[in-house]
TrEMBL record:
PANTHER family referenced in this protein's UniProt entry, alphabetically: STAGE V SPORULATION PROTEIN AC-RELATED, STAGE V SPORULATION PROTEIN AEB
Any one Pfam family match given in the protein's UniProt record, by short name: SpoVAC_SpoVAEB
Extent of the signal sequence: none
Transmembrane regions: 31-48, 83-112
Cross-referenced InterPro entries: Spore_V_AE, SpoVA
Keywords in alphabetical order: Membrane, Transmembrane, Transmembrane helix
Protein name per the record: Stage V sporulation protein AE
Length: 118
């Protein structure tokens, strides 16, 4: 059942993004940024944690999950370090995922020699 929930949650998030691309003039970059902001806002309102519990990786892997991770990190850092946590919490919480993405990107670039599509 966990796999089905993850598939449904991730699929719905992706379908909403595709509908926004098809029906509006927003650029993909703005849509992706909007997804991060929506994740932060839903997390701040306490609505994203139940979604993440239900949807698993379908909710935590997309960009809304990245926004949720940033907000959760800030919340925890403020609770432990005070107001300085506003500046450090999001960076600390997302450091592992960002590092993994950079390392994977460098490895793929080294293996496949990317270039312009001419």
């Amino acid at each position: 059942m966990e796999y089905l929930n993850a598939f449904l949650c991730g699929g719905i998030l992706c379908a909403v993004g595709q509908i926004i691309i098809d029906k509006t003039q927003l650029t993909p970059a703005r849509i992706l940024t909007g997804y991060v902001v929506v994740g932060v806002l839903l997390s701040a309102l306490g609505l994203y944690e139940p979604l993440a519990q239900w949807g698993g990786a379908g909710a935590t892997v997309p960009l809304t999950g990245f926004g949720h991770t940033l907000a959760k990190g800030v919340r925890e850092a403020v609770a432990s370090d005070g107001w300085i946590g506003i500046f450090t919490g999001g960076l600390t919480a997302a450091a592992g995922g960002v590092t993994a993405a950079v390392v994977a990107g460098v490895l793929m670039a080294a293996i496949f020699r990317p270039g312009d599509k001419r």
